[in-house]
Amino acid sequence: MPREWSAATVEPGGGKPTPAEWHDVTVPGRPARFAGADRVAYRTTFADPREPDEEMALLELRGLYAGADVWLNDELVAESDAVFEPVRVPFVPDEENELVVECRAPDDRYGGIHDTDRVPEEDSVPGIWWGVDVTTHPETFVVDVDVTPRVTDDGAAIDAAVEVYAGAAVDDRITLTTRPAGERRGRGMMDRASVAAAAGERTTVEYTIELRDPSLWWPREHGAQNRYEVRAKLDGAVETATTGLATVSETDDGIAVNGEAVPIRGVTLQNGTVGDVERAVELNANLVRAHAHALSPAVYEACDEAGLLVWQDLPLTGPGIFDIGRGKELAGRLADAYGAHPSLAAFSVHDEPTDTFAERVGSGFFDRLRLRWRAWRSDYDHGAADEVAEGFPDDRPVYPVVGEPGTDPDAAALYPGWDYGSVDDLSRVCERYALGDVVGEFGAASLTDAAADGDGDSGGSDGAPIADFDRAKHDAVVGSDDAAASQAYQAELVRGVAERLRTDGSPVVVANALRDTDVAGMGVFARDGEPKDAADELAAAFEPVQAFLVGASAGECDLVVGNDTPRNVTGTVAWEAGDETGSAEFAVGATGRATVETVSIPQNADSVDLEVHTEDRSVTNTYRL
User: Fold this and answer.
1) Cα(521)–Cα(512) distance, integer angstroms
2) What pLDDT is recorded for position 192?
């Protein structure tokens, strides 16, 4: 793989870029010096990498944002218009080779979150974001193995599409070996498929692999993450792909995986990384939502391994019209790009198509009237989003619109305590606008110490803008630039909304967001991955088996135990409030809720501590009064 790269901003329409000056950069990456640029060209040179017995090389580029032209040794060899599709180019290397890749910012509405002010400009630099490799091969070799898994009435099938480059004319057979992946390695099954191609031709061989009595992939807490490896071999050339078998369907009770109800506890990713998958597991989440952007294959692979479901957005967000035909085409291609991953659980088209609450609405009587007026004025037509949604396959749930109250969304964006009112307004808003079954996002922003002190790379107490951070809303609810107070407010709000949605029985609950994109923001983790106060609170609210106080305050409160696991759960829950203590036994059915008892909280209590004990776990939940 080329190691040394340089880059420069370029103008459109000039053919192969030849800027006057190149600057050293790291690839893959997003060079901050080019923040705000519309077009950036990247250049590297490399010697012939082949060994004496090798004839060909393969160039692979991953994550070209948002479109790109690729020149290899002065020839335009590839063009790209979607970050989620890799570019693969077989070639015969020269003794010395030059690779130039011109990447460009989106010129349509499909740049997603990276085409907005919700991420800093330096995170949206046109570039090679995910990876670049040059590998060597024999004269005829397997370029790629694309697999699409299906559960069938007779077991399962894997539709394999094997792409072959024929350096010389070929009339042969490809050997396909399918076996359990990872630690489940065992005996495999073998199939053969014919391949014929003329010299210099790229051809794709399609073959369906039948599996009897397959081992299914399950989300975490519901079963094992069983997967299969498909190995394609042509002479000595080998390429593999890994996949898993799972069905995902939308039911009246939410989402079912392999026919089993799975209550969703999720969190949005705004600039998703492999490290974010580990953080989501720390939060007790079982789903991540790719918030108006495409995740890298490495993130999907990490989700497959961790048992995290993925809700994949089309990269389309904010008000404005968009090209329906282009969107429908991208929807199909997006589904194809990620279709091998058993973690792929749902799609959506248009994220937050209105800006109804650009300015916060308070909590008073007249503020409630203002909220109703704004919701009534939102007036969003679903027609275009519904048409684009037809481009997605029908084997996964699709939520065409993720939107605010008043837009009649398929999945709700609910921000009580941030956009309007307080957490106490959640039930009223959900009831009035028939929301709450599928919640695609909720939360509040908070400061970090770096932002409050003005020590970050951007933003801070000097008033400079911070991506994905509404200073006016923050100051209205927090009232200061104190990071501790800011994080305490976010923590209580995130916890309060998550608990109320769970106790109300909402089957799909997704918090926004996992990690900040800047020195402050909606994340429960800071940009560098350090947890904020809200991380522990959300993790407690997302415990699969947890006890909650409904309306925690002095006086009588219902004590509810939620069970998101697929098994009936029995145990005890104990509480302590001031000088008062007590305990009770409970039994809650699979994926159920049960009111265990009514607890009397004394007036002088400062907090209430709950402890849940079951056969295999003990968890706590603390309420500060």
Assistant:
1) 10
2) 96
User: In this structure, are residues 523 and 596 in contact, taking their beta carbons and an 8 Å threshold?
Assistant: no
pTM reported for the whole predicted model = 0.96
Over residues 601-611, the mean pLDDT reads 90
Rounded Cα distance between 544 and 190, Å, is 41
3-state class percentages of the chain: helix first, strand second, coil last, to nearest 5: 20, 40, 40
**In one letter, which amino acid is 29?**
G
Residue 237's nearest CA partner among 97, 52, 60, 57 is: 57
Q: How many residues does the chain have?
A: 625
Per-residue confidence band for 187, with pLDDT thresholds at 50, 70 and 90: confident
The span from the CA of 522 to the CA of 469, in Å, is 7
Closest to 541 (Cα-Cα) out of 586, 601, 483, 495: 495
360-401 pLDDT, tens per residue?
999 899 999 999 999 998 889 999 999 999 999 999 999 999
Closest CA to 89 of 112, 107, 68, 105: 68
Q: Return d(Cα 520, Cα 523) in angstroms, integer.
A: 8
Burial code (b: 16+ CB inside 10 Å, e: under 16) for 43-73 equals bbebeeeeeeebebbbbbbbbbbbbbbbbbe
Which two three-digit tokens encode residue 453?
């002190």
Please list, in sequence order, all residues whose beta carbon lies within 8 angstroms of the beta carbon of residue 590, skipping any fewer than 6 positions away: 261, 563, 565, 566, 567, 568
* Exposed / middle / buried, residue 551 (Cβ in 10 Å: 0-12, 13-18, 19+): exposed
Token readout for 265 is: 């506890």
Question: Any residues with CB less than 8 A from the CB of 166 and at least 6 apart, and which?
Answer: 140, 197, 198, 199, 200, 201, 202, 203
Whether the Cβ atoms of residue 6 and residue 65 lie closer than 8 Å to each other: no
Amino acid 461: pLDDT: 45
Cβ count within 10 A of residue 372: 16
Average pLDDT, the chain: 94
Return the pLDDT at 501. Answer: 97
* pLDDT-based confidence at residue 454 (cuts at 50, 70, 90): low
* DSSP assigned state of 352: -
Cα(371)–Cα(184) distance, integer angstroms? 55
Q: Note the pLDDT tens digit of each residue in 326-363.
A: 999 999 999 999 999 999 999 999 999 999 999 999 98
- Residue 457 — very low, low, confident or very high, per pLDDT cuts 50/70/90? very low
